[in-house]
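To fix ideas, we give here one paired sequence and structure record:
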Amino acid sequence: MHDFEQLVASSAQAHGHLCPGQVVGVRMALLGCRLIGLDDPQSRSQIKKLIVYVEMDRCTADAVAHVTGVKLGRRSLKFMDYGIMAASFVNLETGKAFRVISTEESRSLAPVFAPEIPEKYAQQLEAYRRMPDSVLFQVQEVIIDVCDCDLPGPTRYKVACARCGQVVRDRREVLVDGLPHCAPCAGVAYFRNPTPVSCPEMNRSANPSSANKDKDWEIHHQSGSGFYH
């Protein structure tokens, strides 16, 4: 694994700016990986052993993902919307799991660890570098039951919604009167009032040179609902 300062710099570059959350996230990831016995989580030999659950959609989450290499697309990054500055690290090979939580006390202790820096933002940046893990974090050993449908790899289960026919993957269907429904049809989606839309912007190909082919495709594949499949 790269040097701590290198990781902070590359994480800040990937995230878009350097902030205290980046420092906390890098240290959180380093500690979490050490606890579950991974010293190079992005290596070919270790990358498939790791799942990370992040509990916040903040700068820290980006840093954790950057250091560990976990990704939503690989199914190794799980987002739990708890609003807590915490992440859990799971070694799929051993089953060991630890939850690392950023302490609220660390913010108030920044002047103690970087007293020579008067400006609050810069003070936190430096203090979070200097604090021992025992001050910056609380650690819990936890049990995380990772079901087959949450594991990295190909889809293990899919079912069609009984109402609209949309395919739902990885056991995310909702049962309504014993029948599988997608979240929108079950009324538990994050959006409301879905209205079908068809517009010229939808008729374009990603490759401009395919314009004529696209036109033919539109003629033969326009559905009754106005959508193109």
Remarks:
- The chain has nine helices and nine strands.
- The two ends are 45 Å apart (CA to CA).
- Residues 20-35 form the longest helix (16 residues).
